Amino acid sequence: MRKGRSGLTARAFLVGAIGSFVISVGAPYGNMALRGSYMALDFSTAAAVFVFFVLVAIVNTLLGLIKRSWALTSPELAVTYIMMIIATSIPTMGLTEYLLPIITAGYYYATPENDWANIIHPYIPDWMCPQGEEVIKYFYEGMPKGASIPWGAWMGPLFYWGLLILALYFVMICMMVVLRKQWVEKERLVFPLIQLPTALLEEGDKPSVVKPFLKNPWMWIGFAIPLIVGSVKALHNYYYFIPDINLRTSLLIFRRTTNLQIALSFPMVGFSYFINLDVAFGIWFFNLLAKVQEGTFAILGIESTEKLDYTSGNPILAHQGMGAMMVLVILGLWVARGHIKDVLRKAFRGDPDVDDSGEMLSYRTAVLGIIGGFLFMGAWLRFSGMPLWAIPIFLIVAFMLFLAITRIVVEGGVAVARAPLIASNFIVSGFGSTSLGTQGLVSMGFTYVYAADIRTFVMASCANGLKLADEWLGGRKRGLFWAMFLAVIVSLVGSIWIVMKLSYTYGGVNMNKWFFFGGSVYPFNFTARYVNNPTGPNWGGWAWTGIGAGVMAILMLARHRFLWWPIHPLGFPISTIWMTNYISFSVFLAWLIKLVVLKYGGPGLYRRTRPFFLGLILGQFFCAGLWLIIDHFTGMTDNMIYWI
After folding, report:
1. Is the pTM value of this prediction over 0.90?
2. Which DSSP letter does residue 425 get?
């Protein structure tokens, strides 16, 4: 822990809440109205990085120059950053831009051809969705002049969904409280995504208003590269005669049956520079191996006719990755069994030998919170129509995926990831759609709101936040839960308000096509497909899940038993997803550079080069945020500069 006063002050809460509100409103505005670079799509939490940099480098510096006591201390800044990364995980793909379109799309996109009115609508509980033809029509097409947003029709559904979401987030936070000591103190995971805020918070040997990191010339060199590249790309969209810069290509391999992406992502190069060499090697190696497997299967005609969700890709590889995800969690919990026993003894027996005074919540609160949260979510799902037998399976699988992806993010620095197979598809594939019935399928479809394209969620941000808090707050974390809770509430309220405002003003169909069409209609296509074409258990899927689980178990056991084992298994569960294919070249590049640096320059050269790679991350996110602001004032739209 760094020395200094507590960061859990009223002004830290206030500044964090303001930053959370700016993010909750700005991120949806950027991808809906401006249709520019995504700032809150993935675990990189780009919006939080951008706002935090402005806060530290400009606002806090100016306050310190005016009067030193006005500037926030590093612990206070750490609290504001934790609040902002929590807030960033909610406004877009994390929740809001799925929630509002999905609970209305089943009505708006119903046609005589798809017959949703007969096969789906009778099974949707009225309390889950806003009612009224004009309420939904205006959400997608815009209100007539002089009309106002029909908040009354939305209050009921938003209240019930809000209860579920708050229970979900509370369980996520409680789980991270339980696992914090195991991951941070016992396993000493790297947490690459907090290296940048840590550098921005560091104090120098001599008191100074300007942070030492901001004085490092190598940081600014790294910062300038993505800033210049991104600005040229942005100016190309303004002036066609300025050449574009393309950072992405692909190679068609195995008789053109599959492609290998070669894409340069400056932040992924930066994040990957801070992970262990064997972890980085495992990420790009297993992705390459998955491409070989995919191409070989295509040539040999080994394929599955099963249809899964929109980004699972090859069903065989998806099931394989799912098995690996499960084993990652199960064996990870087995390794942590001693710590988990301590937690349970403290929670239920009050064992004085187990110290939880340094945790954000007491172990009793965390454990009872997990139990109570699961019971509440189970009851909510039951009222939504999910069969009783499917509820525990769905919740266990969903949270296994949340835990697995969080582990991959905090240990592997993978800022872009999702599950190879989502919980709803796992249940339908594994047990058959006939076992769910139409009511159960409809209920399962609505879980796409929060448990489908899970590319960012509160659990991962909480894990990173607790690591940062460990650095800057030490054992004084008890008030941090309320900071996180405040960020959740502010982000929910702000993002729901702006999405409603933009949708009813301009019409959702005129803005982001994915959130207001592709992603919002998929749950109902999913439901209708299985209602019209019932299926039984897919035994081939179970077989490939078992194969993936077996391979992962062997890899993890080899990692734990043999010191000479060179390949870290962390990359195997995500090796088959398309996003890993996109980032693998950047991970490979960072791995190669770090290998050379450590071999010929040692730890000293590695420490000296760190600011450059942090600058790559900061420069890209600042560039993306800067051009969104410029585009707002110029009226430019569709100026997509960066994704990751």
Report:
1. yes
2. H
